[in-house]
Design a protein that fits this description.
The structure is a homodimer. By secondary structure, the first copy, chain A, is of the alpha/beta class. Chain A is built from 8 helices and 9 strands. At the A-B interface, helix 1, helix 5, strand 8 and helix 8 of A face helix 1, helix 5, strand 8 and helix 8 of B. Bound molecules: nicotinamide-adenine-dinucleotide (2 copies). One nicotinamide-adenine-dinucleotide sits at the interface of chains A and B. Chain A binds a DNA duplex (30 and 30 nucleotides) through helix 3.
Chain lengths: ~210, ~210
Amino acid sequence: MKTKEHKIPEATIKRLSTYVNYLGRLGTDSNPVISSEILGESCQVSPAQIRKDLSYFGEFGVRGVGYDTKKLEAEIKDILGINHNWPTTVVGVGKLGQALLNFDFFRNHGFRIITAFDSDPNKIGTEAANGVTIQSISNIEKCVREEKISIGIITTPVAAAQDVTDKLVDGGIKGILNFAPIKVKVPETVTLRNVSITSELDNLAYLLTQKKR
Amino acid sequence: MKTKEHKIPEATIKRLSTYVNYLGRLGTDSNPVISSEILGESCQVSPAQIRKDLSYFGEFGVRGVGYDTKKLEAEIKDILGINHNWPTTVVGVGKLGQALLNFDFFRNHGFRIITAFDSDPNKIGTEAANGVTIQSISNIEKCVREEKISIGIITTPVAAAQDVTDKLVDGGIKGILNFAPIKVKVPETVTLRNVSITSELDNLAYLLTQKKR
DNA sequence: GTTATGCTGTGATAGTTATCACATTGTTGC
DNA sequence: GCAACAATGTGATAACTATCACAGCATAAC
Ligand SMILES: NC(=O)c1ccc[n+]([C@@H]2O[C@H](COP(=O)([O-])OP(=O)(O)OC[C@H]3O[C@@H](n4cnc5c(N)ncnc54)[C@H](O)[C@@H]3O)[C@@H](O)[C@H]2O)c1
Ligand SMILES: NC(=O)c1ccc[n+]([C@@H]2O[C@H](COP(=O)([O-])OP(=O)(O)OC[C@H]3O[C@@H](n4cnc5c(N)ncnc54)[C@H](O)[C@@H]3O)[C@@H](O)[C@H]2O)c1
């Protein structure tokens, strides 16, 4: 994989994630090769956009033929860094945290949720998902450090989000995916992404409101 | 509200959603007025960006002073169309669907989840959340039409996503928020947004991988 | 071989979005 | 009333992203 010096558009990364997803489903034995046109149809992205996205990272296809489906899938997984399992933890095992913990897809897709934390005494010690026992939030720093956990997923209420963020950071976490609707602060060494389900709905409401006019 | 002719950047809408969120929390009686600088600090957006975002829709502030916190909150809710309750339904009451059904925030924020549908006979007839009973998926088209449901949230497995989409469309749904990792097809009259939690994690993995190099 | 064919890879271009600097205008103090 | 001030609103500019058209290259046909 050649990583060119260019800064890569965030939209490109998002699309690469989509491509991987579809390649995994489209790649059958009877379908060993795929063109940017066919992949684009599934992903609802223009063929040129797909080729441009890939061109940031190197040359993966064969001119006149297309892309080896399995090989391209592997290459994109390399690019995204989901070709190995990131040790991951879920903090806040409420409704949303539970859904994520039970979402098997992550397991086969580059992430391994190995621990879960909560502050509720009634939850501590119970099993959250296959093989993951909920631990006390007071252990989190030590545990993140000892188990070399790379990624923390925050699904606590807003009020607790900054506090658990700080604890994760103190434990040496590398990246955080935050579902609480607040912009938590992290040092520059830690990578942060916020997921806002609410704003997706808001956006839908906006589009519907526009259409009415 | 003056809506200027310009096309509004999608990023602007996403930020407006953030602004509303913070305004709701920042607006206290002791804090009736807020400047773009202070709001920007909370939201981690530059003051100029906030002013530009708002300027697409009109003039909401007072020069030399700032914005009336409560009034600005209401104005943005108007713009986004979350100033009334959109009748909403959740299709597929699994782990994720349940989390959304129990997420009270939506209720006070422009959306009212009034029905839920599933295909699992063991779930049909049980209560999914406060006051919402799970109905059979076979009733969905009729129900969407009769209860004038505007928004459908899809949280079924991939295999069922296109099918339930079609049923929602047939019932006259206006907008769909799709959590299944597949690009479902809808007619132009229906507004669609896809939420990809997986791609957020992939993006985080990518950033972490970059940082290591 | 040579030519025709087809799909990739990419430079050039158009379109979109963010940033900046400052003109504008309401407020406060004297 | 007038000057000094403070924060908004916005045109101009820079940065970024997507689209397009076609050159480049492997393959297939003969
Ligand atoms: N449920 C949704 O559909 C949804 C959607 C979008 C965003 N969110 C956000 O995700 C977060 C979680 O939502 P939820 O519906 O799962 O809430 P929830 O109340 O069901 O779960 C929160 C969990 O966090 C635990 N917790 C509280 N303080 C803690 C602390 N200091 N340390 C560790 N754990 C702590 C609680 O014990 C509870 O188990 C919230 O911030 C919410 O705004 C939820
Ligand atoms: N759980 C997560 O954290 C998560 C994260 C991202 C995306 N997703 C996506 O969200 C969707 C739901 O995930 P989940 O974890 O809640 O799955 P789940 O298996 O817990 O729930 C799926 C539900 O859909 C119902 N269902 C199946 N076919 C149906 C049909 N034809 N009509 C109506 N209902 C039907 C099932 O009975 C079940 O209750 C999946 O597509 C998944 O990929 C889930």
